[in-house]
Design goal:
The protein is an alpha+beta fold. It contains 51 helices and 34 strands. The strands form 6 sheets. A 10-stranded mixed beta sheet has the order 14-33-32-31-15-27-30-29-28-34, sandwiched between helices. The chain is globular and about 120 Å long.
Length: 1409
Amino acid sequence: MADPIRWARYRWQRLVSTGGGESSSSNNSTNKCYQSSKTVGKHRIVIPCLGHFKEEYEKVSKLYMNNKIQTTKYTLLNFLPRNLFEQFHRVANLYFLFLVVLNWVPLVEAFQKEITMLPLAAVLTIIAVKDGLEDYSKYKMDKQINNLLTKVYSRKEKKYMDECWKNVSVGDFIRLSRNEIIPADMVLLYSSDPDGICYIETVGLDGETNLKQRQVVRGYSEQVSEIDPEKFSSRIECENPNNDLSRFKGFVEHSNKDRVGLSKENLLLRGCTVRNTEAVVGIVVYAGHETKAMLNNSGPHYKRSKLERKVNTDILWCVLLLILMCLTGAIGHGIWLSRYSEIPFFNIPEPDGKWIPPALAGFNMFWTMIILLQVLIPISLYVSIEIVKLGQIYLIQNDIDFYHEKTNSTIQCRALNIAEDLGQIQYIFSDKTGTLTENKMVFRRCSIAGYEYCHEENAKRLESYQEMDSEDEDSADHQCGTSIHMSKWQGHNCRALNEPLNRKSLDQLPGSSPVLGRENGAGDMPHSGHVAFSSPIETDVVPDAQLLEKFRQISSHSYQQSEEASSKLSLETMYITDFFLALAICNTVVVSVPNQPRQKMRFSPLGRMPIKSLEEIRQMFQRLSVRRLSSSPLPSVKESSSESPNSFVSKLAIFRTKLSSPVLDGAAQRAAEPHNTDSPVNSQVPQELEMVNVAAGCEHNSAVSSVELSSLPKLCYEAESPDEAALVHAARAYKCILQSKTPDRVTVDFAGLGSLTFQLLHILPFDSVRKRMSVVVRHPVSNKVVVYTKGADSVMMDLLRTASEVDNKNSEMEQKKIKERTQKHLDDYARRGLRTLCVAKKVMSDTEYAEWLNHHFLAETSIDNREELLLESAIRLETELTLLGATGIEDRLQEGVPDTIQALRKAGIKIWMLTGDKRETAVNIAYACKLLEPDDRIYTLKSQSRDACALVMSKILEGIQNNTSAKKKPSQELGNVSTSPPAQTPGFSAGLVIDGRTLEHVLHDSLQNIFLELTEKCRAVVCCRATPLQKSVLVRLVRNKLKAMTLAVGDGANDVSMIQVADTGVGIMGQEGMQAVMASDFAVSQFRHLRKLLLVHGHWCYTRLTNMVLYFFYKNVAYVNLLFWYQFFCGFSGTSMTDYWILILFNLLFTSVPPIIYGVLDKDVSAEILMQLPQLYMMSQKSVAYLPSTFWLTLLDAFYQSLVCFFVPYFTYYGSDIDVFSFGNPINTAALFIILFHLLIECKSVTWIYAVVLVGSILLYFIFALAFGAAHNPPSNPYWIMAKHMTDPVFYLVCLLTTCVALLPRYLLRVLQGTLFPSPVLRAKHLDRLTPREQREAIKRWNEDCAVNSGVESQATSGASSSATGAASEEESIASVLPTSKTPFQACSRDGLIEDTSILPDIQDKSGI
């Protein structure tokens, strides 16, 4: 047995080498490459810390990080200095630090040194405590993670030992058991799975619950026993650490200099969980902060809101105002001193006896005034804003309307500092699939060999289908798995299948980590309902009767004849067979069993023990023969064609899957070839031979397969995308059942052909450049290498065989007809809003495959430019395809999407739909969700050159401008036109549709301005075939060029870049994982939740925060001006009429809490009214509450109120002998009442919380003033001042009169606004006071008024023609007007839908493009 194994390995090594005669030179060249890369340091060298590598390992290991992680910023020693250093990066804190230092200068000292430090110290302490608590929670989490245990191979003990994660290093061998978390990025070298597969769950990385397959490095999967680290003599060279989760490049170099390429399929990432695999072993390549998971953990992302930027600008104005006031005080002090002819008695000389001149005294007074008037810059504003934002986020997260019962999820607010931006959104950029739609793909139609199958029965089922609630889905899922529980009592096989899954066997597993031990089922996904894309509406497909009848005629004999003959019937048979085989195997679906702890679909291991080693040797030979080109164990087509059908069927038994044990599979192959006496194990299994011959000799294999399936548990398909799941379930409905999948085999149970096992040679995954995926298999019937490809029709149609390359003329005509009819069906599907895919195949000779494989191997084993080389290799393979057919999959709209889009459009928000689907599909969905209205004039921009694109956009702009001018002269017929929908915005109603290729031209610098000008005149824009990069570029273009507030919403990884670029990113918690959610600022479960998030909470957050910010500016300016006015009566000496403690605590304590409560709880309009009147959103969108004029009027009002507050007490006590503190106390008390009652006037809804805080602030002031006055407080001495005033009636009269006169103008203004010229917000607030019936009637009248106003302007142009399209480029452009169908989803006849070109007046150029 050793000789055949060595021969097989030799053939394998020869196959993967660069050439027979060049092997030695290639080895030398690769060795040079390795040396050079090692010296340059572009790549990472990973070697084990064992054997003869010990010395080299000690040198290399010093360059790499260990596995200990530390996400904290501080330690006990550096917390104080580092935190202060970070806080003083804020300009405001530096400003106040400067004032503290300045107050220590004796010449300019204004307050006691301790008093000046109080505000800054309070702010710094609050922020430091917050930062410290956050960092401490990170420290505890880091400690918990670092001390988790895992099995690490010890070179001293010569066995695997429990080690903490933090002690793991690069080059260590790790052994993991099922349900354990991977501690570091490691290359998979062994798996207990016979096929070398390890299943992992990446929910910790990307949120996806579907299982992912990872496979052992090629060459190590043939091991019978677990890998021995002591015998590992290879080294790994890979790329340096990076954060790309979808890429890993490297190779394993053996001691004989042979190389094996590494990819992401061989890499287990830190944070993932091992599932369905009893034990795996790997070698660590990245550890700690160099792992991909940690490199992607950049921490919370911070964005600056638009309001925050505006506040910073206004603070600069306050700084200028402060400087102006201080200059006034400095100049006034100098003039006042110079007016004395003699030196005044209060002027103290310097220690040397010299007197300070008036000019220098004025200069010193400038700095004293800055200290005195420092409150003008609101230091507490920043802290208050942070507190208010936290309160607003708390209210958003606890809104019950955002809860989605089916997914048991609610809104997530991941960014805490941009909540107010939700109220200023002007543009929404939305993905389509999974964002506007449910991302539940339902198989609707298909076209095979040019014949369409409408699946009317399935369509009727979907029309009457009512989606189950969560309880019904759970019961359906439970019912889905009843077959395994029923069969559990019927035979030992099913019991054996279930036994490894119970908790007892899991606990007894060798190498299980006690740290990761969990309760029963806690570590598993115990229910199939957790599997994405597995709802009944997606999995249940009713076959088409006509196609099912043709399908039943397929047998092994008919398929064999179709491979050889070229008749129309036999050709259709081959097309149907290959079409469904492509649906079943051209995917990345993982097959598992429902209602089990994510158990891989395998068969019972009964009977395996007697010939375990021989069976595994046979499996190894099967894997080694996958890529053998010179010989194959499969019969050729010619040989099989010359034999009888029975003999042909018997040879098909070679490809049958295992029934109850791997022995049966091996016995089947040996029994099917009874004349092959060379088989070394043929004589050892006589008992299985007779049984398998019975199955092999049966003529009707379908009956055999049905018997086989009856004993099998029900399968679950875990797909990475819903499209794949829909296609696999569609194939299953036609009895083309995907049974199992391994890295080198795919087993399909095909009705009429039995169980077929395809040798899986390669998988070329889908990417956004190729827009297709392919699998390369060796067909079990023909023994030929076949490429099955599925992808977008925009690229697939260009890859088909040309007419000149078709040998037979009849075949040539047939291929041409199939292509034309399929394209017609594709266009029909797209107009119905279905997602389309083309399916094709290619048959390769062994020579062609060997030539391609040679180039592909070089691409796989390269590190530099691997992506480019693999892309080039895939493109080289995916040519000369034969079109099999096409599919149409429906993705239903989410609940409430049309109403949400209508409401957002009424709110003045422009919505762009950015999708990768084709034009017709995107437009149809746009009509269905009311993004486009039937009366809209739609322009389709499609061009192949930049010049032509510019010309078309110019003509479209010209046409829109003509239509816009035409609205000024509406005809009399407009009176008979029905009122346009209220969703339409005023002006010309136009929409723009643009495809991905044209986007490349549009995004060029020379065309950006005209493109944006065009889009501003369109009410909606639909971008088709857009790549993720183009999406992000579009968002950035609108954001930067138009200075507009943008929001991007998506649900998948392809939307991440768009979400991150936008001002506000919203992720949809859908079925495509959590990448979009983790990159977003806010995450919702349904698109309809955007309506309340923006129209209600966005409006509230912005209105509350702007009013609070304006109030802070008013409060500080009004109070500081009191000190400023007093300077005119004290010679600008920088003194105060109020005690310094009360002066500092006035803004810091007495008046700080009410505006915070106001900013969190105030409601200008109720949520119900805001939802029903989206037009109110425009008030916050246009920043009506915070215009520059509003800011300056607020400061002007503050100046007026400060004048009243100072001079009313001044003239009251004028001429009396009252002391300075007795004069300042009524001023200070009146200022408190004025400032708090000013907020009461501005408050739109007074709650009991606000009332308690307001009264509490006043009481706190009086209690503090009484207590403070009762004590002796040098150097100032406000002894019993408040107590004496509270017994004086004049004091109360002054406070009352001052408050009334100061607030009277603002109160009168608000009264006049509410009665004579109320704003829309005030009108809406009045609706809350009406009865429900009156409220409904008022809202109805409001909407009718808005509809009439927008309708008159829109209807003036609804009948105008689009003259711009007539002058489109004659070379390669299209400017078309799409049909305005009000029923996008129409019924389909049996003969298919005849395209009505009369309603699609596309104006095309002469070239027909």
